[in-house]
Design goal:
Blueprint lengths: L1 H41 L1 H12 E6 L6 E2 L5 E13 L7 H10 L5 H10 L9 E4 L4 H10 L5 E10 L7 H4 L1 E4 L2 H6 L10 E5 H5 L1 H5 L3 E7 L5 E8 L6 E4 L3 H10 L5 E7 L5 E7 L5 H4 L4 H9 L21 H10 L8 E4 L2 E2 L8 E2 L7 E4 H7 L2 H21 L22 H7 L6 H7 L10 H12 L3 E3 L4 E5 L6 E2 L5 E3 L5 H16 L17 E7 L22 E8 L6 E7 L5 H20 L7
Parallel strand pairs: 2-10
Antiparallel strand pairs: 1-8, 2-3, 3-4, 3-5, 6-7, 8-9, 10-18, 11-12, 11-23, 13-16, 14-15, 17-20, 18-19, 21-22, 22-23
Helix pairs in contact: 10-20, 13-15, 13-19, 14-19, 15-17
């Protein structure tokens, strides 16, 4: 009886298990059929494209960056065919191991590995990610012979090159590797595959013109991953070539004159606002940045107390000193406070009524009686203390604002600073203090709170040469697309400073002429052998204030506490062509240190125009 009962139980269990197994098999089969239907019918097109994508890839074609030339067609920035080592992640089974092998074979170093990991997320798995730029021909040959690194290749690319090294770097700028911030700013589609973008200067200002338009290509790979065919879908369009208004000869002359000094020289064409010279020293080599700056060069720039990367022409802000006296004179003439005949007596100091403090003239024994022309020529401080006092800070601010002091000129490179043209409102907002009468006096000689850039001084001086027409300075002169004619840019902008009497301008210009050509002019030392007429103004700007009875002796102070030397001018006087502004930091007297530099570079300009002209 027990055996029969056991058999029934076993049969029952077996039957149950068979049913469960059949149900399980049915469910699995159903799932498999649904999945097959989903793959083969519902999502057929999607997976067909995915499968094709393993064989076919669409990649960007990086356009060739445009060249940059000076006004005479001299090449300032171009592209050099170079070679780089690249790694394609989807083709490398063990990336970490491969990188170490490449390092051991001396094809890359630890810095290259760090850079790869830093930039890896910017690329897709099928992109060729750069590992090492600017490979030597020896390295290329060694790699091609070894051929033992699957997924690692040597590819050709165009590397940015600045043939003249550090020359003109503050105008040109440089390119460097694109970062996440750059990628947010520029069009994602057009910058796919782009490795380098402009960081400062012209390279940054006109990045989209220089970059061009990215193309698209389709590559086909075989089962081993090798490219067997490439089809151009959309060709890349090269960036435009740019012609700048800069004159490289003048640039190099200015750089040579300022070698070993901190300073700036700006030359502007008074007829159209084109910048011929834009030099800031010290300089640095833009080629350092193209493939990533080395630690040595980076530390050299970072640790320099001279701040080589500061573009002093547009970012350096200095007290303009006596170089604004022509503009202050014009304000007094226009307001009718002075005439070309009125005189002021200079005993060597100036005092406000009921004020004990003396405001000293640079010439302690005084200039005697001077009119406005002689005051400009001899740079008489007392004359301008008195004039500023009579004008008042608000009228002084108004007239100097017309010359663009205290605001940007609008030059076509990034980073320009506006400087300060003080007023009662400015001081209340920025210093939370009232304006004092003595501050008006020192503002009248370009000291105190007032600061300006060398570019602003050049633009303002050009406006005097033009008798009121003030141009927006420009560097871009023309553009040229591939296989297309050169097109001059239509970017000339000017405005007219309102004037009541044209003779007021002539009076100021006469005073600036006397600065150079008169026996008592502060720049008379530079007129020997001069074959063109030059109107100018010297300036010596204090870095810190002195007590009224304290005499300034440069040797007593640390070098960086000494006065700045300045000179502004234009030539020729009869038919002005160019205006110049020179500043040499902590050099001392403008008549001794800055004016001679201006003379030497102006000689280069006029000798180029007339090679037979005799100059000393």
């Amino acid at each position: 009886m027990n055996n029969i009962n056991n058999t029934q139980l076993e049969n029952s269990l077996l039957s149950s298990r068979l049913k469960l197994a059949l149900i399980f098999i049915f469910l699995l089969t159903s799932i498999l059929l649904v999945r097959l239907y989903n793959l083969q019918v519902v999502n057929y097109e999607f997976y067909q494209e995915e499968a094709l994508g393993n064989q076919m890839r669409t990649l960007p074609i990086t356009p060739t960056r445009g060249n940059i030339y000076d006004r005479n067609g001299v090449l300032l920035a171009t592209n050099l065919l170079s070679y780089q080592l690249t790694l394609t992640p989807e083709k490398v089974p063990d990336i970490a191991h491969t990188l170490q092998q490449l390092k051991q074979a001396n094809f890359i170093n630890q810095q290259d590995i760090k850079r790869y990991h830093k930039t890896r997320n910017r690329f897709r798995a099928f992109h060729n990610i750069p590992l090492k730029h600017n490979l030597s021909k020896t390295k290329v040959a060694a790699f091609l012979v070894s051929n033992q690194f699957p997924g690692v290749e040597v590819s050709a690319y165009f590397q940015r090159l600045y043939p003249h090294g550090a020359s003109s770097v503050h105008a040109l700028g440089y390119v460097s590797r694109i970062n996440k911030q750059d990628q947010k700013f520029y069009d994602k589609k057009n910058y796919a595959g782009t490795q380098l973008v402009g960081k400062v200067g012209i390279e940054k200002q006109y990045e989209t013109l220089l970059h061009g338009r990215t193309g698209v290509k389709q590559i086909e790979r075989n089962v081993s991953g090798r490219i067997i065919d490439t089809t151009i879908i959309t060709p890349a369009v090269s960036g435009k070539n740019l012609t700048l208004s800069l004159d490289l000869d003048l640039q190099k002359k200015a750089e040579a004159l300022l070698k070993g000094k901190r300073g700036a020289i700006v030359i502007i064409d008074v007829r159209n606002g084109e910048i011929l010279t834009l030099v800031s020293t010290p300089t640095y080599n833009p080629n350092w940045f193209v493939n990533g700056i080395s630690h040595k060069n980076y530390n050299q720039l970072r640790n320099s107390t001279d701040i080589p990367q500061l573009n002093r022409t547009v970012q350096g802000l200095y007290p303009p000193g006596s170089t604004i006296k022509p503009m202050v004179s014009l304000a007094g003439l226009e307001e009718g406070i002075i005439t070309d005949q009125s005189q002021t007596f200079c005993p060597g100091y100036y005092k406000l009524p009921n004020v004990k403090r003396k405001f000293n003239d640079w010439k302690r024994n005084g200039h005697g009686h001077v009119d406005v022309k002689n005051a400009i020529a001899q740079s008489c401080d007392v004359f301008f203390y008195d004039l500023a006092n009579k004008l008042g800070i608000e009228r002084l601010h108004h007239h100097l604002d017309l010359f663009s002091f205290g605001r940007k000129t609008g030059i076509d490179i990034p980073g320009e600073k506006a400087g300060i043209m003080p007023s009662k409102a400015w001081k209340k907002i920025h210093r939370k203090e009232p304006w004092y009468l003595g501050e008006t006096l020192i503002a009248g000689i370009g000291q105190g709170f007032m600061t300006s850039s060398p570019l602003q001084l050049a633009v303002a001086t050009a406006a005097i040469a033009n008798k009121g027409e003030i141009f927006q300075p420009t560097l871009l002169k023309a553009t040229q697309a591939t296989n297309a004619p050169i097109i001059a840019t239509d970017n000339k902008r000017s405005r007219q400073i309102p004037i009541k009497d044209i003779h007021n301008w002539e009076t100021v210009i006469a005073g600036m002429k006397m600065t150079v050509h008169a026996p008592q002019g502060t720049a008379r030392r530079i007129n020997k052998g001069l074959t063109y007429t030059l109107a100018g103004k010297t300036g010596t700007a204090q870095v810190f204030g002195l007590d009224p009875e304290e005499q300034y002796i440069a040797e007593k102070y640390d070098e960086k506490l000494r006065d700045h030397a300045l000179f502004t001018g234009f030539a020729p006087i009869e038919n002005p062509e160019i205006a110049i502004a020179v500043i040499v930091e902590n050099a001392g007297s403008g008549s001794v240190k800055a004016a001679p530099l201006a003379r030497k570079i102006l000689d280069v300009y006029f000798n180029k125009k007339s090679p037979n002209r005799l100059t000393q």
